[in-house]
Model the fold of this input.
Amino acid sequence: MSVSVKRVSQAADALAHLTEISTQIQAAVVLDREGAVQAATVDDDRAGRIASSALELFRQADAQREQALVQLDAALAGGSVFVVRDEERLIAATTGPGPTAGLVFYDLKSALRSLVAPPAKPKPKPRRAPAKRAAATRKKKDADA
Done:
């Protein structure tokens, strides 16, 4: 499996998990820093519109700041647009009116983190060492003496 196909698959899995845990998110798109869609919860046309709008909104807001912008929430009459950026990509999501912004940002950041690090494998439970049988050994030595 090539790296780009693997990344697209990871992004699709991250969005599936995101929409499963976050009932406030109506649509979500993962895009690279140039605006290319890697995965989306909507059809290609709508994903492209969301990605280009989110990237432009983010770039305009970022240009107004002295420090690098990492997240953005734009409240509109009918809902909100959230954008979060990491080193390699952005994730954009739309919600209905009155979302819990902190939860949406948390969920979006978690989705981005899942794309950076491979999914954590559960640690195997440590096996207990067999009990030492010192008492039995001593009895045998005492009997031989």
Residues 37 and 44 are 9 Å apart (CA to CA). The longest strand covers residues 25-32.
